Amino acid sequence: MAVPGDPPNGTPEGIGGGDDELRPDEYRSVVFDEDFVRAARLQEFSAQERMGEHARAVRSRSIWSGGGSPGRGTGTPGRGARQGMLLVLLIATAFAVAVYLGLRNPYVPPAGGNAEPLASTVVPLTPSSAVPGGQPAALYAQSPAADYRTGAAGIALPAVRRTHHFTESQIVAALSIAKDYLVQSSLDPDVLSGAASRPVRVLLDPGQLAQFDESTTSPSGDGRHAATGWLVRFDPHTAVLADTRVRVSGTLAFEEISPEVLAVTTDHTFVYAVRPAAGPPAGPDAASLFTVRRELRLRFDHDDLTTRRAELASAYVMAGPQDCAADPAGGFRPLLAGAAPTTIGPPVSDPYASGHPRRTAGLCGVMDPAATPPDPSAQPSSPQPSGSVGPSGSSASAASSGSSASLRSPSQVPVAQPQAPPPPASVSPLR
To answer: Which one-letter DSSP state was computed for residue 415?
Structure first.
């Protein structure tokens, strides 16, 4: 029985036949469905298209050359190609805009938002007598600073051991930053004279820069904005250095106060030789010593150790000899050689005054006389007895009797003397 599609005269000889060989499903493996055809990367031009000016017999079906829906007979990109090119163009435009905005407005991370403001206390020390003067070398030799080292050599680092969250190298970095801060803020001649503050500023946490700038430009004794809390500065109209070789002695210590913060405490005494800044040229003996005791507490986190900066948390400063009436917030005003304090106690404070009173207004100390070198101009003099010169003008007997003659009654005055004794009226009796 013939099946549809068989030849009318039957299957010719020599050709494999049979119903099984003529079934349509036998060609199913070589028949391409519509999806496969559409996914082909190459497409042959039609007969009508080949009649045109085409050098090639096939076209590419990628999205770049019009895959999917090519323009018939035009060779222009199809809809898919146009969409692909538009997408690439949008991505390139967005990238270019991002780069442009990044260059115009670069991202700046928050500058030290966690830094706390500095709390400082500056206490002037007034002398109990006139300030001795002399040559710097002689003054140093006769003062407690005779054995102090000179300059940065007096700031020695302690032995280092690691903590729970900071390695030895990180602790060494913190100590070295603290030493650099002490050197720049206490020994730099430009900083001491008030000509510069940048060497100190670059070592501070960015979160404290605004407070530091306000302290150096508009100092105030409010406990927050004293320039002398951040650094050592002399009033340029009062005193200048007579010797740049500053004597230094003190200690550094460290401790871990949290897993993220390392604290370094410094306690150093700086001794300066100063002379008057104005007036006639000072002689070789016009120098005097000025002593500053600085106790600082610096904090470091991991970012500070990487960028070599510090957060100055607190400062306690004692400096003298100064007058208690002077405000040391903007700069120290030393009492120079031969000068004596005008006030021993702190200046008066009005509790009814409006505004922002000085927090350190009532702070003033008296400098220990042992902390000052002896006055080389002071010469011991022989005491003179009271009332030893009588009406006759003779004073030899009074000099021989010594200072105790003025404390003796007339009956105690010795009679046997090399010269005639003075009359009884020449000795003042005890009253």
So the answer is: S
For 358, counting Cβ atoms within 10 Å of its Cβ (0-12 exposed, 13-18 middle, 19+ buried), the class is: middle
- Paired with 354 in beta bridges are none
Based on the number of CB atoms within 10 Å of its own CB, is 142 exposed (0-12), middle (13-18) or buried (19 or more)?
A: middle
Least confident of 14-18, 85-89, 120-124, 368-372: 14-18
Is 194 in contact with 331 (CB distance < 8 Å)? yes
pTM score, two decimals?
Answer: 0.62
Question: How many CB atoms are closer than 10 A to CB 356?
Answer: 11
Contact status, residue 13 vs residue 32, Cβ threshold 8 Å: no
* 402 φ/ψ sector (left φ>0, alpha ψ -120 to 50, else beta): left
Q: Three-state DSSP class for 282?
A: coil
What distance in Å separates the CA atoms of residue 303 and residue 311, rounded to the nearest whole number?
11
Dihedral class, residue 70 (left if φ above 0, else alpha if ψ from -120 to 50, else beta):
beta
Residues whose CB is less than 8 angstroms from the CB of residue 16 and which lie 6 or more positions away in sequence, other chains included: none
Tally Cβ neighbours within 10 Å of residue 116: 15
Yes or no: say if 126 and 367 are a contact pair by the CB < 8 Å rule.
yes
| pLDDT above 70 (res 83) | yes
Task: Determine the straight-line distance between the first and last CA of the chain, rounded to whole angstroms.
Answer: 170
Cα distance between residue 199 and residue 195, in whole Å:
11
Residue 247 DSSP class? E
**208, 112 in Cβ contact below 8 A?**
yes
Task: Kindly report the number of other CB atoms within 10 A of residue 226's CB atom.
Answer: 26
Count, residues in the chain: 431
Average pLDDT, the chain: 77
Closest CA to 128 of 344, 373, 362: 344
Count H helices, E strands: the chain? 11, 9
192 vs 66, 196, 318, 430, CA distance in Å?
Answer: 77, 8, 16, 57
